[in-house]
Amino acid sequence: MTPPLVKAAWDHPPTALGFKRLVIRRSFSLVGLGALLVVTLAGAMLELIPHGALIFICLAATTLPFLPVLLVAYVRRHRVAAILRAYPWCEVSGHHPPRTPSIIAIRVAEDCAPTFRMFPFPIQVTDSENLIWFAGDPRFGGVVSPVGGHRPVRVVLDKGAGREWGGGDDALARRVGLVRRSGKATQT
């Protein structure tokens, strides 16, 4: 792990701007999904849309499963901001295993390469040199971004990943929401 690039990741201007874009994307997704369902339901109730009930049922069946994920992502945006305000960006090497875009392995030290899962929406964060920026505690999770810090994404420990790395501050991890009171890592 390289030395921190700034005191806190939030102090890097592209990171703050990237977080604002993240909040806007999640807000529009949530509002758009809700508005689509409300407009379709209103059209069906007022009989403005031919076969409106059928269209509403089809839309509800295909979009309602995404609603809980969008709600959790929207509510947990505060955790991403807390991590970015508390931890610095560190440039690390990482790679996506084949055929698993939501999983990323990050090499923190020579003997430690925990596997993380991106939550809730995976993106390609590695560049051609397999370098990424990581802010957080490698034992519990954090935030990753492509080099430059402009696209922060929350990562959590993948199931089965251990706490191989010996460093870290438990109190800080608990304060920003990476760890529950029980000592287990949060999964959202």
List strands and helices in order, with pairings:
Elements: H1 13-45, H2 52-63, H3 66-75, H4 77-86, E1 90-95, E2 103-107, E3 115-119, E4 131-137, E5 141-146, E6 153-157, H5 170-176
Antiparallel strand pairs: 1-2, 1-4, 2-3, 3-6, 4-5, 5-6
Helix pairs in contact: 1-2, 1-3, 1-4
Protein described:
With 188 residues, the chain is α+β, with helices and mostly antiparallel strands. Strands 1-2-3-6-5-4 form a six-stranded antiparallel β-barrel. The two termini are 24 Å apart. It has five helices and six strands. Helix content is 38%, strand content 18%.
Features:
elongated, 188 residues, six-stranded antiparallel barrel, alpha+beta, 38% helix, 5 helices
Give the structure's gist in a few sentences.
The chain is of the alpha+beta class and 188 residues long. It is built from 5 helices and 6 strands.
N-to-C series of helices and strands: HHHHEEEEEEH
Shape: elongated
Number of alpha- plus pi-helical segments: 5
Tell me the number of strands.
6
What percentage of the residues does DSSP assign to strands (E)? Answer: 15-25%
Helix content: 25-40%
> How does the helix and strand content classify structurally?
alpha+beta
Can you summarize the main beta sheet?
A: 6 strands, antiparallel, barrel
Low-confidence stretches: none
Q: Which strands sit side by side, in order, in the main sheet?
A: 1-2-3-6-5-4
Ends apart, CA distance between termini: 24 Å
